[in-house]
Amino acid sequence: MVSNLNPDIRMAKHRDFLKANWRAIASFAYENYLTKGRGIVAVPEEDFVHANKPAMAPIHFRYFPESEIPAMMPDYKGSKEQKWVASYDPKERVIATILRFDSGVSSYLFGAKPTPPECHKGSIAEGK
After folding, report:
1. Does 66 score more than 60 pLDDT?
2. What is the total count of domains within the chain?
3. Most CB atoms closer than 10 Å: which of 47, 58, 87, 91?
């Protein structure tokens, strides 16, 4: 059961998933940033935590623009996530929030290459 996962193992599974799916997450985040403004990409933990290969898990992203984040995250005001949303560079980084089985959240501010705009441009070129 996921709720019994050691916090270090849970975090490792989150990071593996985010790293394996960087291009899809970055493209999705940038596309939504362009139309909705700053925000957070939310991913249910149940979509990937049991997958043997994190890149092969079915992914159900949801984008929460800044004005909608408090509905997903009641403790948003004054949180690290609020500070991140106010200051991150959407051309370089993404904020991903994992919606955990235990009703908590784990958020990650991360970036990689290619950048979010490059990932988005690539997915448009591929017709995704």
Report:
1. yes
2. 1
3. 47
Contact (Cβ atoms closer than 8 angstroms) between residue 4 and residue 101: no
Q: Domain range spanning residue 31?
A: 2-125
121 or 3, which is more confident: 121
Do the strands 94-99 and 105-110 form a parallel or antiparallel pair, or are they unpaired? antiparallel
Give mean pLDDT, residues 27-45: 96
